[in-house]
Specification:
Number of domains of chain A: 3
Helix content of chain A: 55-70%
Protein name (chains A, B): Phosphatidate cytidylyltransferase
Number of helices of chain A: 19
GO biological process, one term (chains A, B): CDP-diacylglycerol biosynthetic process
Structural class of chain A: mainly alpha
Oligomer: homodimer
Shape of chain A: flat
Number of strands of chain A: 6
Membrane topology (chains A, B): Multi-pass membrane protein
Strand order of the largest sheet of chain A: 1-2
Distance between the termini of chain A: 64 Å
Largest sheet of chain A: 2 strands, antiparallel
Largest interface: A-B, 92 and 92 residues
Main location (chains A, B): membrane
Subcellular location (chains A, B): Membrane
Chain lengths: 462, 462
């Protein structure tokens, strides 16, 4: 994880450097110092169009100049190998290679099981938080302010404690069947989390320093919005995972497929610009993305449906043998569907069968693929707009050819919420195991009451 | 509800007005136009101390000048009556009168029952949202931007739909015992809410306009943070109310008592300044507030504990007769407590009883009063810092002598969360009625399974 280090200390910013004419030099310098953020020199807010600006967009470029940006230098050896190709192709190949590497790595983590996936999600989340927060630091230039860095990391830890501990506790209760290991932590989980948050809140109020109020409040809001985006999404991703790995793998793959296929279609057929925010995106790419995602999404869903490893919920995971064992729910059992009448007629003519055998999940995957390919890109447009607002090219430089992690995961933003809401609304019945846990927490007389009410409800005569 | 109307239309801000010398005139003008926000003229960001500012604190005063601020004009008739008194006393009396009026109004709403309280909470929430958002509009001067006002109100409606509908549905299910009235809305509640949010999100992305990106994103964040503060708090307040009105009335009263008593103690004995953020607050006021809140809080708790109207949960509310009927839980039954040994000895000497009869709730109220008087004020400091950051005196002018609604409810901010977490962690066992509702939603075979597991667990032999 990249940490941001001040080159200079003290409270006031350093004097202005030489004018930024020698861009080529500074880009090399940027290479070396991309883990440092230098506090920026002052440039007078002289306004070109006579409009006063509360947020001064004129010097943002200078403020964010030192943030790490993607570069081709880190893949020098690839560059040498691909030197013969034109620039456009070279970029495409570098990007493809690293896409494949990521897909392979992702596959490996899936193989290691749900705990590894949870850890991966956590790591990605922390890195995304760091990337977004680093922009805030640069933009509001609060590097000299006491406590601010610690405070936002503290908030990250607090909110992660709140969300992750809950998931972990659930994991241990359901998988290891030992809910009592962490009983005190479970019982007082919310109270502990809230206490941690209140400490952060009081800390923030006490750290307020005159002259910096506005920037401190802005960064406080920035931290909260970042947490809202990053931590809640990763919590939902893990919750989806618990319903069966398929609910995690299929949506993530769909976004990847849509990104890649839209890029591919745009690359080969792209002509009509789609939206001003992302000038490289085209209607051809968008539509190609939708169609590919729907088809490939259905194929992947169909393939995964037959493996218990992907369709069984977390309760049925055996962490020692690293396998899932369960009777798959109806969603994952082949079902005979009648075709619509018009199609039946056509199929009759050609002597084809008039019913089709499908996993019901494949039909659900249709909804997922439409969302991921139609609404998903708006997460990308949102990120593009954000980058334009702050005049940065990328959120970071960890993945060659791709930029920062946020650049890659921008479209996943709303997807996790969608899947979660979708499962909750259309798929999941309340979980009997969880309800039993709830009942066991009741007083014996209430348990007895429920037992009798249930007896009545089920018309059981003794 | 005050709506903000542009005096001028079009995309560019109007030319600069006359220099702001005649403050007395402009304050009168302010009176007349306090429901309007005028788009602010340009003032060049010439910097006095040579530091460049991304957020330019130098002209904030001009930007927010037209926001409604508290004034004594609205209580002219009172002013005339109190003209003989010195200014400090007059302020105090105006403030006290309106405090009493508010307390009386609040009592009336409590008398009308839980539905009226829910509506009151909703109204306060909407007004608080409007006050905070209005500052954002002025500060980022996006009055000319298409859609922005509609968008943030849309977001308010969406999040209220999400939170309030859930509470209302619960209310109808538990109180009117007719969960089926709203069945489709309940089943797809999350999906509908999420769809509404996604529409807002897409709308925001499509409304992005070059040159305004930074301000649009800032205001988007501003809206989200405001929603986080305002809507979630009011949701939690209602959830607390459902556990019994006492969980709502006692905490709210404690904050009011603490505010008033700290003010009173500070007014009479205040000498030592407490915190730079709020120069009027003193240690004497703070400590006086804590002691008064603990004592008065216990007294109020003790008094309320004996009324079913306050201690029964929402399930036991009869909306036609407007009464609560239940057997109060152990928390609200007089219990004999032994005094600590040292106290017992002292009491023995004086021939006093060595046990004390208390409602257990009174002991819980100790935790609530300590939180409300020690941490509660930090909500106020936070609001003070916020007002200082934006150089405004008050959030609004709806309550004479008090300012805006946010000024009055700033300390309630963390209290609702605390009470909710406290109930969840230390008081509430899972609700048997809710668990039964969950079981009835299961498939018959799962219901049967739970029945058998429960039979085993309870060691029932047939």
């Amino acid at each position: 994880m990249t940490t941001l280090i001040n080159r200079q200390s003290g409270d006031r910013p350093p004097p202005p450097p030489a004018p930024t004419q020698s861009q080529s030099q500074s880009s090399q310098q940027q290479q070396k110092s991309h883990s440092n953020v230098i506090r920026k020199p002052s440039i007078d807010n002289v306004d070109s169009d006579g409009e006063d600006k509360l947020i001064d967009e004129s010097n943002i470029e200078d403020l964010v100049k030192e943030l790490p940006q993607s570069s081709d230098k880190t893949v020098q050896f690839l560059d040498n190998m691909l030197a013969v190709l034109p620039n456009r192709w070279r970029n495409y190949i570098v990007r493809s290679i690293f896409t494949l590497l990521m897909v392979f790595g992702f596959g490996l983590v899936i193989y290691w099981g749900p705990l590894a996936l949870m850890i991966l999600t956590l790591c990605i989340q922390v890195k995304c938080f760091q990337e977004i927060i680093a922009i805030g630091y640069s933009v509001y230039r609060v590097h000299g302010l006491p406590w601010f860095r610690s405070l936002s990391w503290y908030m990250l830890i607090t909110s992660n404690y709140f969300f992750y501990a809950e998931s972990l506790v659930e994991y241990f209760a359901l998988v290891l069947k030992q809910p009592n290991i962490m009983q005190p932590l479970i019982s007082y989980h919310r109270f502990i989390s809230f206490t941690l948050y209140v400490i952060g809140f009081v800390w923030f109020v006490l750290s307020l320093v005159k002259r910096y109020y506005l920037r401190q409040f802005s960064l406080f809001a920035w931290t909260h919005v970042t947490l809202l985006i990053v931590v809640t999404q990763s919590y939902l991703i893990i919750q989806n995972m618990f319903e069966g790995l398929i609910w995690f793998i299929v949506p993530v793959s769909m976004i990847v497929i849509n990104d890649s296929m839209a890029y591919l279609f745009g690359f080969f057929f792209g002509k009509t610009p789609l939206i001003k925010l992302s000038p490289k995106k085209t209607w051809e790419g968008f539509i190609g993305g939708v169609i590919s995602t729907v088809f490939l999404g259905m194929i992947i869903s169909y393939l995964l449906c037959s493996y218990q490893f992907f369709v069984c919920p977390i309760e049925s995971y055996d962490p020692i043998e690293r396998i899932f064992k369960c009777t798959p729910s109806k969603l994952f059992q082949l079902t005979e569907y009648c075709l619509p009448e018009t199609l039946q007629l056509i199929f009759k003519i050609f002597g084809l069968p008039q019913t089709i055998s499908l996993y019901p999940f494949v039909l659900h995957s249709l909804a997922l693929s439409l969302f991921s390919s139609i609404i998903g890109p708006f997460g990308g447009f949102f990120a593009s707009g954000f980058k334009r607002a702050f005049k940065i090219k990328d959120f970071g430089d960890v993945i060659p050819g791709h930029g920062g992690l946020v650049d890659r995961f921008d479209c996943q933003y709303l997807m996790a919420s969608f899947v979660n809401v979708y499962i909750y609304s259309f798929v999941r019945a309340p979980n009997p195991t969880k309800i039993l846990h709830l009942i066991y927490q009741l007083k014996p007389e209430d348990q007895m009451n429920i037992y009798q009410m249930l007896q009545e409800h089920l018309n059981i005569t003794i």
